[in-house]
Amino acid sequence: MSKKNKPSSRLELEGVQLPEYILNDTIEVLTSHESIRGFLPKPLPEGAMQAITTAARSAPTSSNLQAYSIIIVQDEQRKRRLAALSGNQNFISEAPAFLIFCSDIFRLRYVTARQGYQFSADTLEMFLLSSVDAALALQNALVAAESLGLGTVPVGSIRNNPKAVAEELGLPVGVFAVAGLAIGFEREGVRRGTKPRLPKQVTVHNETYSFQELEQHLQSYDKTMISRRTYDGRRVSLAGEPEKHGIEYGWCEHTARRCTRPETIAVSASLRENLKQILEEIGFSIR
């Protein structure tokens, strides 16, 4: 696909026509997102980081607990070490800034003790709450950065080595790195065009959940992803199982293989396999 033919937004890709009074700059930024995995050795503009973090801090937060923290990493050596801990993804060290969004109950524990009470909110709900807070802040930061003409990519593989990442970032007990966000000016040629999503009939439901037309939409989406050769060179291997023949490798096959066992989500069996145990060791409860 030539550069001029690459869809620059989901609106263009899906042929969505919005009224002029609805289509504003915010909608255009949101629907034009594409993960960027190649950055120029160029610093962020002055004031950009303050704008991005202020936008992140303006995200919704449950009960105003603000159970998250953001670590800004710009040191070249630390970015390289974090890249190595995150699956050797070089774009992390290329980006001028790498932000790590953490669920944070350390501060809540401190405030509770400071006020003379015992912290008893060590439940699964608190882990979910703090993780959602962190994710909302990340999304605000992503949109803010892209509105400034910068490229971004969220990085879930920061969870590959939680203890090593915590040590690198000096995270106290009760703080967990949920996801990273690489930010910078994109290198030429890294864009591949907006990636198709599942049809809205699959993920957007009116009033009640519906799966009446799920199969036909999955088949349609598979054909789209196969025709784009999306998974060429990215096939998930099934260790110990014979390779299937005669099956077209699209989204369904790729997704199914990734879900055959939990660890394949993180590529290696040694990564994220014991995440529950690690979370409990660093101060979160999954009860």
TrEMBL record:
Pfam families: Nitroreductase
Keywords annotated in UniProt: Flavoprotein, FMN, Oxidoreductase
InterPro entries, A to Z: Flavin_OxRdtase_Frp, Nitroreductase, Nitroreductase-like
SUPFAM superfamilies assigned to the protein according to its UniProt record, in alphabetical order: FMN-dependent nitroreductase-like
MF (Gene Ontology): oxidoreductase activity
Domain Nitroreductase: 31-184
Keyword Oxidoreductase carried by entry: yes
Annotated protein name in UniProt: NADPH-dependent oxidoreductase
Lineage: Bacteria, Bacillati, Bacillota, Bacilli, Bacillales
